[in-house]
Amino acid sequence: MNLRFSGAAGSVTGSKTVIEVDKEKYLVDYGLYQGASEDRSRNWASFHGASEISAVFLTHAHIDHSGLLPRLWKDGFRGKIYSTRETFNLCRILLADSAMIHDEDARHANEKQYSRHKPALPLYTSYEVENVLSLFETVDFEKEIRISEKVSITFFWAGHILGSSFIRLRCHDEQDNEKTLVFSGDIGHKRNILLKEPSLLCQMDYLILESTYGKKLHSRIPAKEVLGMYLNTILKRSGVAIIPSFSVGRTQDIIYLIRELIDEKQIPEVPVVLDSPLSKKANAVFNECFCADQIKDDIIKDGTIYPVTMQEIESVKESKQLSETQGPMIIISASGMIEGGRVINHIKSRIEDKNNGIILVGYQPEGTKGRILLDGEKILRLHKEELRVNASIFNVNTLSAHGDYLDLISWIRDSKINPKLIILNHGEPEDSRHFKDLIESQLGFKTTVASFGEEFNLDHIY
Ligand SMILES: [Zn+2]
């Protein structure tokens, strides 16, 4: 039995792990590399032997876990993709959106002639997306499914985004010995705004565990308090608060926090406008599965996450009109890092007025417009226009869909497991190393950090 770490090893994007059991090959996740251009160039590499992969087990819909599946289809994969129903529903909207972005990127590269390839082609199109979506087979949580004579899988709730799961594989090796592997995918935590905490781990021989926050801790100050304070500052001067937000997960968190702030009269009852077609679709998926399996009981009791003054707008005309509407008002729009989407126009029309404010609510990597604002730059270039940053810039850094190392350590401890080996992936090298030392010293489990391309032969080494 073999494991190969073909992505998200030494980095946090491009998740993909190959498992070979008795000559059958499977993949856990097939995600897109994001961030630095040397990482992104890996997205173009073909998967040799894609047609020999029997199935993909998909932990969740985030693009760094699912975003290369259309390329896998293009490379010849025709097996099944197993995921939860919500993961499939989110993949439908996220992969379609991803194809649109790749198409725009290629068109832009051709117009500006900056690509080495003539003509520049998109990484994939809606054609590959439609084809790969037809390979999905949805599964229920905690229901074991037999994939072959040698392999059974079970999905468990991971508390990270809707539909997110960690996956247990029960495999029989050539000598017919049973071995159990658990792939964590991304794991949430107890402080998540809307989602229930992750299920406890089941017993396993090998745990393949994410380590995104292996060296960092999230602030424990409630996000509602911080958001309320910033919103009040902007709204009291009749300004417009613009919240650039990620469509899946973060936008629903923000909408609900604003609802609570208005209901508790902690902020004035002002119009709240969501202007992002993708976020609107993500809200629809959220509404569809508004049930007790994944969402916290208090939220279910409330019956909705929407503030009374909430409007979702769709057309370009409405979006343009919104840019001219007077405050006080809250606008939520994508993208969360101000790298594209309708939020660009809202920022362009509001950033030079000191009464307005921009509230960042997620991680802002180097090189993004969000990071430029966070770093306190006084000039922002958008669409070749130089804009003076007169609006207030605020940052709510207490929201994260990932558990930090303290969350993960207590999750493992509460689960009372006894793995033979923990293999860490999905982390920057420093985070993974720190987390390895911590697991070994606090829990006493043998732990190793997977490097890119590393193979583990589980028959002979352990
Ligand atoms: Zn994720």
Describe the global form. Answer: globular
In the residues, how many domains can be counted?
Answer: 2
- Can you identify the CATH superfamily of the largest domain? Ribonuclease Z/Hydroxyacylglutathione hydrolase-like
Helix content: 25-40%
The small-molecule ligands in this entry are: zinc ion
CATH topology of the largest domain: Metallo-beta-lactamase, Chain A
User: Which class of the largest domain in CATH terms?
Assistant: Alpha Beta
Q: What is the radius of gyration computed over CA atoms, rounded to a whole number of angstroms?
A: 22 Å
Structural class: alpha/beta
Average pLDDT metric: 94
Treating each run of at least 4 consecutive H or I residues as one helix, how many helices? 14
The rounded distance between the terminal residues' Cα atoms is 11 Å
Assigned CATH architecture of the largest domain: 4-Layer Sandwich
Strand percent estimate: 15-25%
Strand tally, please?
Answer: 22
Poorly predicted runs: none
Strand order within the widest beta sheet:
6-5-4-3-2-1-22
Description of the structure:
Strands 6-5-4-3-2-1-22 form a seven-stranded mixed beta sheet. A seven-stranded mixed beta sheet has the order 7-8-9-10-11-20-21, covered by helices on one side. The chain has a six-stranded parallel beta sheet with strand order 14-13-15-12-16-19, sandwiched between helices. It has 14 helices and 22 strands. It is globular and about 70 Å long. With 462 residues, the chain is of the alpha/beta class. Zinc ion is lined by residues 60, 62, 65, 160, 186. The site of zinc ion has 5 residues, from loops.
